[in-house]
Specification:
heterotrimer, A mainly alpha (217), B mainly alpha (42), C mainly alpha (212), A: 217 residues, mainly alpha, 83% helix, globular, B: 42 residues, 1 helix
């Protein structure tokens, strides 16, 4: 119970900061749009390219968002203060993870809406896409929270985050693209749901444990 | 004969990469142990 | 003891080289190119073995915090990226003449490339960390994550290609005749012994440097 209250307080803190400063969603969202535009321009931007471009832009925007939201805590010494409070450090992971989930979810939803207009993509099968997006968001924010925390005290950590985040997320990217294509075609593909679920479970299990290692003094 | 060129290129790559790594490791071991690497201190 | 280990490794590598370049017959389909397999497959096996060492000793380090485990984790990560790089190079040198392309979007190639990138990142994190002790912990954690993620990448790439365009070329799907299998086995053994030797020496170097 106490742990849940701690987690909720942390989520609230992150979201209030975001609401006041808007320094994650606005830059990351604008960057995602730029990626959609540039890739759409060079690839011709037909409806058949839409799933690929959508997921690539979501992934690239997620790197920025995960890095920025971890950086914010580092800048103001928030993390050091939080570590002084009693209670488990796992709660810090869950708090950051849930807050990042909300941010990445909003980001993905915005980019999905944008690609409907930009590429004239069919909105058919949107419940499946929404579910895939939710699962992907949970997994990506877990891996993003963990990796950003690991790179917090490393020189050039902001450059290393994409190097580690993009290869790790290949399963989510491929699963997202295939599931979105299948949804537009009115079918579904079983194994890909499994890939997303396994990715989520892996990082939700490993994340909190290794996060504690990352933040300890 | 052209095939042997590719085969030797692959083995050459392996020799250069592994050789360079082993050579550097050996040099650093010698420096770190002050020349004792040869006798094998355990 | 070390001289014996070094001699045995060298002898085994020489035997493997002789089997690969002289004793093994050319393949009916691939011709002489099959000889590249005798360096490519052992390098791949060695890189996965070294990655496993990095993962296990990284986890042990995080649990027990003994610098001994960190030395093994570092050696494992270095050798994993070295052998993964060699696997990619030899794979490309085989792919160009046999498949006609330097690079194919095959699951093994992609997952080896991911393994390479993640372990290079792991080494970079260790060296760029502001505090060396923290760097060890971070590298150990990344080694664990990388090892758990690579199988998932592998299977997702397998499905991504096969569900889309039918089975691609899969080396090893063909049954292998004993005259190819024996040299391959000897070479795999030789490379594993070599990487074991390098691992021990690299860990020893880490210990020596920590002493000074």
């Amino acid at each position: 119970m106490r742990a849940a209250r701690r987690v909720l307080a942390l989520v609230r803190k992150d979201l209030v900061l975001e609401w006041r400063g808007r320094d994650v969603l606005v830059p990351a969202g604008a960057f995602g749009l730029a990626v959609l535009l540039v890739l759409g321009l060079v690839s011709g931007g037909g409806p058949q390219d839409a799933p690929t471009l959508l997921w690539v832009s979501v992934l690239l925007a997620s790197v920025l968002a995960a890095g920025r939201s971890a950086e914010r805590e580092g800048e103001e010494g928030t993390l050091e203060v939080l570590l002084l409070y009693p209670g488990s450090r796992e709660d810090l992971f869950w708090g950051r993870h849930l807050a990042l989930c909300v941010l990445l979810g909003a980001l993905a939803l915005g980019l999905w809406a944008a690609q409907l207009f930009l590429f004239n993509a069919p909105a058919r099968g949107w419940p499946a896409v929404l579910l895939a997006g939710t699962l992907a968001t949970v997994g990506l924010s877990a891996s993003g929270t963990l990796l950003a925390a690991l790179l917090g005290h490393v020189r050039a950590g902001r450059l290393l985050l994409p190097l580690l985040f993009l290869p790790t997320s290949v399963p989510v990217l491929l699963a997202g693209v295939r599931l979105t294509e299948a949804a537009a075609a009115g079918t579904t593909l079983g194994p890909w749901w499994g890939v997303l679920v396994v990715f989520d479970l892996l990082f939700l299990l490993v994340g909190p444990v290794l996060f504690e290692v990352a933040v300890e003094g | 004969m052209r095939a042997w060129g590719w085969v030797l290129a692959a083995y050459g790559c392996a020799a250069v990469l592994l050789g360079a790594y082993a050579w550097r490791l050996w040099r650093r071991l010698e420096r770190a142990s002050g020349g004792r690497a040869r006798e094998g201190d355990a | 003891m070390r001289a014996f280990a070094m001699g045995a490794t060298a002898a085994l590598l020489a035997l493997g080289l002789w089997l690969a370049l002289r004793a093994s017959p050319p393949d009916a389909y691939q011709g002489e190119y099959v000889r590249i397999m005798y360096v490519h497959v052992p390098a791949a096996v060695s890189s996965y073995a070294a990655a496993a060492v990095a993962c296990v000793s990284g986890a042990l380090y995080l649990w027990r915090r003994r610098s001994e485990y960190d030395a093994w984790a570092r050696a494992g990560a270095e050798l994993a990226s070295l052998f993964a790089g060699l696997t990619l190079l030899t794979g490309m040198l085989w792919g160009k003449p046999v498949w006609g392309v330097w690079w194919a979007w095959d699951a093994r190639l992609v997952s080896t490339a991911v393994l390479f990138l993640l372990y290079v990142g792991c080494l970079l994190v260790r060296d760029l960390s502001e505090d060396p002790v923290r760097g060890r912990r971070l590298a150990a954690a990344l080694g664990v994550v990388a090892f758990l993620d690579v199988p998932l990448v592998h299977y997702s790439v397998v499905w991504f290609r096969t569900l889309h365009q039918g089975p691609s070329i899969r080396p090893g799907a063909v049954q292998m005749a004993p005259e190819f299998l024996a040299p391959l086995a000897v070479n795999v053994l030789a490379y594993l012994v070599l990487s074991g030797f390098l691992l021990v020496e690299r860990a020893r170097l880490a210990r020596l440097e920590a002493e000074r």
